[in-house]
Each structure stands twice: as C-alpha cells, then as structure tokens.
Design a protein that fits this description.
The protein has a single domain, classed as Helix Hairpins. It is about 70% helix and about 0% strand. The protein has 5 helices and no strands. The protein has helices at about 1-5, 10-25, 30-50, 75-105, 110-120. The longest helix is centred in the last third of the chain and has 31 residues, at about 75-105.
C-alpha cells in the first residue's frame, strides 16, 4: 500500500487507463468511445512521463555550470510522448471526421442503432 502512495502518478495513470477502457467498452455512442480512447492516451502519456522523471535531476538544459551526465534526466521519454501526443490528436481528428460521415449516412452515432439499420 505504501508503494501505491509513493508512486501516485503511476497509480493515477492506471486508474485513468481503467476509466478510459471501461468507457470505451461499455458505451455505444461513438463520441463517448473517442473520449474513452483519449483518456487512455492521456493515462499512457502520464505513466511514461512519470517514469522518465527522476527526483533530484534536472531537464537537460544547461544553464551556467554543467552538472555532468548524472545531473540530468534522459530527454528521450519526453520526446517520445510529445510525438505520441501529436499522433493521438491526429487519430482523434480522424475518428471525429469518420463519426461525422457516419452521422451523415445513418443519422445517428449509436452503434446498436447503426447495426440494426444495416441488418447485421
């Protein structure tokens, strides 16, 4: 239990991931599914950024005195998460555009009504 309280960023990201996953699975509305997917993305970003941060070290921006390689954190996790955020925004925009097209064709964004209309 103590480790859960010590690693509160990781614990919070796991809770967020669970909320997003449940939202993605239980709702038939396409917009709610997209929101659940975005919550899951955010949880993954929070988890990796929390793992990339080391208490007592600084970002690798040299201001004045160079502290050596042990004084700075690795910038790679942060750079990868910035790339992941760009990809997540692009996927969200694409999913919303597809949702608009589905609404124009079927007049609804509820998956159970769409499958009933298609006869599947």
């Amino acid at each position: 239990m103590e480790r859960l309280l010590t690693n509160y960023f990781e614990t919070g990201s796991m809770i967020l991931f669970g909320i997003g996953f449940v939202t993605l699975l239980l709702h038939n509305n396409l917009i709610k599914k997209i929101i659940g997917m975005n919550i899951m993305d955010t949880a993954v970003f929070l988890f990796f950024i929390a793992k990339g941060n080391i208490i007592g070290k600084e970002a690798p921006i040299i201001k004045g005195i160079h502290k050596g390689i042990e004084g700075y954190i690795n910038p790679l996790p942060t750079a990868l998460m910035l790339t992941g955020i760009v990809v997540a925004v692009s996927i969200t925009a694409f999913a919303l555009a597809l949702t608009i097209k589905i609404y124009e064709k079927y007049g609804t964004i509820e998956l159970d009504e769409i499958t009933r209309m298609r006869g599947d």
